[in-house]
Specification:
heterodimer, A: 468 residues, mainly beta, Methylamine Dehydrogenase, Chain H, 5-stranded antiparallel β-sheet, 4-stranded antiparallel β-sheet, 6 helices, 35% strand, B: 111 residues, alpha+beta, Ubiquitin-like (UB roll), 5-stranded mixed β-sheet
């Protein structure tokens, strides 16, 4: 079934178990094999900190190669306010609500990282999304929370959002829970935070194993203004991930990585709901860390990939690769990650997750990339947010990290906007190839240049869905 | 006319290319709000002093922050940087504004 079509109930994917239609797929393999090629992408497009000021928008990109507007930005949904910094986003419903009859994957939940404003966008018509509700910052501050980040729909008709700060933009943060149908605020998700400072960033969960894993960036008032080495020396950045009891909503264990795991950002657990393991990319240490449940029910970790810092003539210090985004294919066979400062993205065979094997690398932009232009356009920034087609054959990425960090490391993005690229992936051959025919230049966006950040498509993707 | 009869101050805004505008701001109104009312685009994000998107450099005059400027460290504040989303003028002021001031205030690892 096509998943880029209207989401009315009779067009849901074939879903024959228990005779109940829902918004997702019964298994990761069903999502990988029974969906069609992605034809539309939603891309977060912030204008915060751009030379030419403006409001952020959700970009709609045409990914249908049969279309006359293929590889073009075909619509923009502009936010009503300035200063949001759209960053990550999610759906009201996914495969975790597989048995929820009548529920559709219809609404995008789009937070502003800086404004703490949450937008609800109706994407029933995938090519004509519309803002239908706004949760204002003050409503979040009432729960002493700010800086919304990761959005996951969860079983039981709820949406849970990781929140990086309190109402002052300091620690502790927490989790905000929304109702899946009317998007009212239920309150905080967590029941018991235990004794720790409450630093947050991303999270993933595995309901079958009753676990949630959360990661750490820093307090908003630390990372918002930009990257300052003083904050690293002062210990203001995260170096741990946290294991939570999912059903009890209770903090259970801290895995402290120390020097080996500074700024652990994106967490990706296996899509296979039987598995109790995953990866987290430690951005500043530039290590990939494998974490897993042990026989006695506690969790442990190992560094399985290390990126070496490199000397650069223009830098005072060896340049860390900065692993900013990671992604697991739906069949859990390949790990992709971006080295945003160095300028490449890696493809690893992770069929044995504790022993990843490098199979391919694409260099494009960054400080060391040997390819610095595509179609005559200078690459502004470097591989950053990743999204993979459901069938694992096409990898897309954007080049902006975060407005203030962009402006320090790739200031040209602030003047000319960022870019979206694509590579063709050949999973059977363990390789990938940049598709030089594909390029979306957010510098040409109507209303002025924009950054480009997280990517999703209608019907779900490799970072949206969780299976019970 | 005494200062108390006219509790407002003239704030001149300059970016890298020169003057972008001059506005009279009543005491207590934030520079971002006053600029927006006057149709001048200044960068901003959180609007409560946490994020630093609105960082500007005070070239002349005095401003005061009406909420704690949490985005700026002490040495940056001492260097004359202010957060225009929570700052209001105490005297007539000249400010260097623009999207690039934030990175200048924090610095980079570049040589």
């Amino acid at each position: 079934m096509s998943t880029d079509q209207s989401n009315s109930t009779d067009e849901q994917p074939i879903h024959d178990h228990e005779d109940v239609d829902g918004p997702g797929y019964p298994t990761p393999a069903a999502m990988r094999t029974e969906s069609e090629r992605e034809k539309t992408a939603y891309v977060m497009a912030p204008r915060v900190g751009m030379e030419t000021d403006g409001k952020d928008f959700v970009g709609v990109v045409d990914l249908d190669p049969e279309s006359e507007t293929y590889s073009e930005l075909i619509d923009t949904v502009e936010m009503p306010n300035k200063g949001d910094e759209l960053h990550h986003f999610g759906w009201n419903a996914c495969s975790s609500s597989c048995h929820a009859e009548g529920l559709a994957r219809q609404y995008l939940v789009v937070p502003g990282q800086r404004s703490s404003r949450i937008h609800i966008i109706d994407a029933e018509d995938p090519r004509n999304p519309q803002i239908v509700k706004i949760i204002e910052p003050e409503e979040l501050f009432e729960y002493d929370l700010s800086a919304p980040h990761t959005v996951h729909c969860v079983p039981g008709g709820k949406i849970v959002i990781s929140m990086l700060g309190n109402a002052d933009g300091e620690l502790p943060g927490g989790f905000l829970q929304l109702d899946q149908e009317d998007f009212t605020i239920d309150g905080r998700w967590e029941a018991d935070t235990g004794e720790w400072e409450g630093m947050h960033y991303d999270y993933w969960y595995q309901p079958r194993h009753d676990v949630l894993v959360s990661t750490e960036w820093a307090a908003p008032n630390t990372y918002y203004p930009g990257f300052d080495l003083e904050d690293v020396e002062a210990g203001n950045y995260g170096d741990s991930i946290h294991i939570w009891d999912w059903s009890e909503k209770r903090h259970e264990q801290t895995l402290e990585f120390g020097e080996e795991g500074q700024i652990p950002l994106e967490v990706r657990m296996s899509h296979n709901p039987e598995e109790t393991q995953g990866y987290v990319g430690a951005a500043l240490s530039s290590n990939i860390i494998h974490f897993y449940e042990t026989d006695n029910g506690t969790w442990d970790w190992d560094v399985v990939i290390e990126e070496e810092a490199r000397e650069h003539d223009d830098w005072d210090m060896p340049v860390p690769s900065l692993i900013t985004d990671t992604l697991l294919s739906l069949d859990d066979q390949y790990l992709f990650y971006a080295n945003w400062l160095h300028g490449n993205l890696r493809m690893y065979d992770v069929s044995d997750m504790g022993n990843p094997r490098l199979v391919d690398t694409i260099w494009a932009g960054g400080l060391f990339g040997d390819r610095q232009e595509v179609q005559g356009t200078d690459i502004r920034g470097s591989p950053q947010m990743l999204q993979l087609s459901r069938d694992g054959s096409r990898l897309y990425w954007t080049t902006s990290l975060f407005s203030s960090w962009d402006n320090q490391f790739f200031p040209e993005i602030a003047e000319e906007g960022s870019l979206m690229f694509k590579a063709d992936v050949y999973p059977d051959e363990g390789r990938m190839e940049l598709d030089e025919e594909f390029l979306v230049d957010f510098g040409d966006a109507p209303g002025g240049p924009a950054r480009a950040h997280e990517i999703r498509w209608p019907g779900g993707d490799c970072t949206s869905d969780v299976w019970q | 006319m005494t200062c108390c009869d006219d509790p407002s101050h003239v704030v001149e805004l300059r970016d890298a290319d020169g003057t972008v505008g001059s506005i009279r701001i009543p005491t207590g109104e934030s520079i971002v709000d006053a600029a927006e009312s006057a149709g001048i685009d200044l960068p901003y994000g959180c609007l409560y002093g946490a994020c630093g998107t609105c960082t500007a450099r005070l070239l002349e005059g005095t401003c005061t922050h009406q909420e704690p400027p949490r985005a700026l460290k002490d040495d940056v504040l001492e260097g004359g940087y202010v957060l225009t989303c929570v700052a209001t003028p105490v005297t007539d002021c000249t400010l260097r504004v623009g999207h690039d001031v934030q990175a200048e205030a924090i610095g980079t690892p570049w040589r």
